Amino acid sequence: xxxxxxxxxxxxxxxxxxxxxxxxxxxxxxxxxxxxxxxxxxxxxxxxxxxxxxxxxxxxxxxxxxxxxxxxxxxxxxxxxxxxxxxxxxxxxxxxxxxxxxxxxxxxxxxxxxxxxxxxxxxxxxxxxxxxxxxxxxxxxxxxxxxxxxxxxxxxxxxxxxxxxxxxxxxxxxxxxxxxxxx
Length: 183
Ligand code: SF4
Ligand code: SF4
Known about the structure:
Layout lengths: L10 H10 L11 H5 L2 E3 L1 H8 L9 E6 L2 E6 L6 E2 L2 E2 L7 H5 L2 E3 L5 E4 L3 H16 L7 H12 L1 H6 L7 E4 H13 L3
Antiparallel strand pairs: 1-3, 2-3, 4-5, 6-7, 7-8
Helix pairs in contact: 1-8, 5-6
This protein binds iron/sulfur cluster (2 copies).
């Protein structure tokens, strides 16, 4: 779907990195994403992981589908130690994207309603209203806020958590807004 190179070679990866540079994970979050998410790996991630001294080959699952090889780490992540990533500099692309996530469409990303996702969303709501003059629908705001509030409860019950859908084009414009310092 994304071609032969790694997902971190896509322009959207750089866009997300710049957006994330304006945020940080609250210290109150006990690395939830590392405990609940499947971490999908591409070939480039695997290559980098194999160079980590803590590489745990037995925790990398692989399968073939439609003639393509797929790899993932199931939660909880074996590289999480005392709620910290023990391979931080070599962590996979998907980890570097959190709370954003790839979707099955190349021009769409998803935002996870965790604490950091909620901070990003709050700024995006203001940006849409004040800069784009295109306020987000009240029901979108309400749905995301509800997802954020019920996030822990749903995860504990093993229920899926709805994520917010973003067009990559809109995120690129949001990145410029954050860069401008107008926030
Ligand atoms: S990305 Fe979200 S879930 Fe993951 S550590 Fe940060 S705040 Fe927590
Ligand atoms: S590799 Fe690191 S950042 Fe990624 S899920 Fe595991 S502990 Fe978390």
